[in-house]
Amino acid sequence: MSYVLYYSPGTASLALHWMLIELGAPFEAVCADIDKGEHKTPEFLRLNPAGRVPVLIVDGKAHAEVAAMLMLLAERDPERRFDVSAGAPERASYLQRMVFLANTLQPAYRDWFYADEAAGPENVEATMAHARARIEGALARMDANLADGRTYMLGERLTALDFLATMLTRWSRNMPNPATSWPHLKAYVNRMRAMPSLIEVHRREGLTDWING
Ligand SMILES: N[C@@H](CCC(=O)N[C@@H](CS)C(=O)NCC(=O)O)C(=O)O
User: 3 and which of 15, 22, 27, 114 could share a cystine (Cβ 3.0–4.6 Å)?
Assistant: First the structure.
């Protein structure tokens, strides 16, 4: 079971890159640097017509969408270490939170980082203000979820949800209110940042900020 991951440093591919390392799964990492436009080449567009990273090759077929691929990798792991299977008591929370991150928090970041996309270059300021409010609202919800003292997003077990959640907290690092402004999220982020596999993915992607606090 070998995978190929097309990634660009520090982007939406990081969660998958990190999970592949943590799983110890055999994989090849191919850099498609978005700063160099390598995600818009005809070869890359054949893999993902949307021209976005990540792309994960599974059994010879290309797939996109980081949240979906995290869940897929988790369920394909023979030991299902980070999976929350159908029928598990936390299954509904797992699905709800994964989808919340993927379709509420992540698109708000898209508006923050690609602020001319939603309403044109003349509305960048307003787009960013709205995006910031949505991001902060979502981070506040994540913080509230951790207020009962749980170690991970779903409780005491690391799941696919944590790979997505942690990556998305990282994206706020240069914002006026980074995720670490919320006390429970700060403690969570610090726990996750101590994971050797998260440190390792930063090393492999050549990233030095955020991981050291
Ligand atoms: N919905 C996609 C979004 C992926 C995405 O937006 N990737 C960004 C990097 S974080 C990208 O490829 N940006 C380059 C571009 O849009 O041109 C996912 O969750 O995988």
Answer: 27
Phi and psi at 40, nearest 5°, equal: -120, 10
Sign of the CA dihedral with 186 first, then 88, 95, and 92 last: negative
- Probe target for ligand 1 pocket from 53, 63, 100, 164, with the most ligand atoms within 8 Å of CB: 53
pLDDT digit string, tens, across residues 49-83 = 999 999 999 999 999 999 999 999 999 999 999 99
- Write out the H or E segment, with its range, that includes residue 25: none
Mean pLDDT of 15-24: 98
Confidence of residue 1 (pLDDT cuts 50, 70, 90): low
* Amino acid symbol at 8: S
b (16+ CB within 10 A) / e for 152-166 = bbbeeebbbbbbbbb
Contact 67, 103 (CB under 8 A): no
Please write the tens of the pLDDT for every residue from 104-119: 999 999 999 999 999 9
The atom number, within ligand 1, closest to the CA of 106 reads 19
User: Which pairing describes strands 3-7 and 55-58: parallel, antiparallel, or unpaired?
Assistant: antiparallel
Question: Please, which pLDDT band fits residue 213 given cuts at 50, 70 and 90?
Answer: confident
Q: Spell out the domains of the chain, with CATH numbers in brackets.
A: 3-76 (3.40.30.10), 91-195 (1.20.1050.10)
Q: Output the residue whose Cα is nearest ligand 1's atom 12.
A: 52
The C-alpha atoms of residue 68 and residue 65 are separated, in whole angstroms, by 6
Q: For the whole prediction, is pTM greater than 0.70?
A: yes
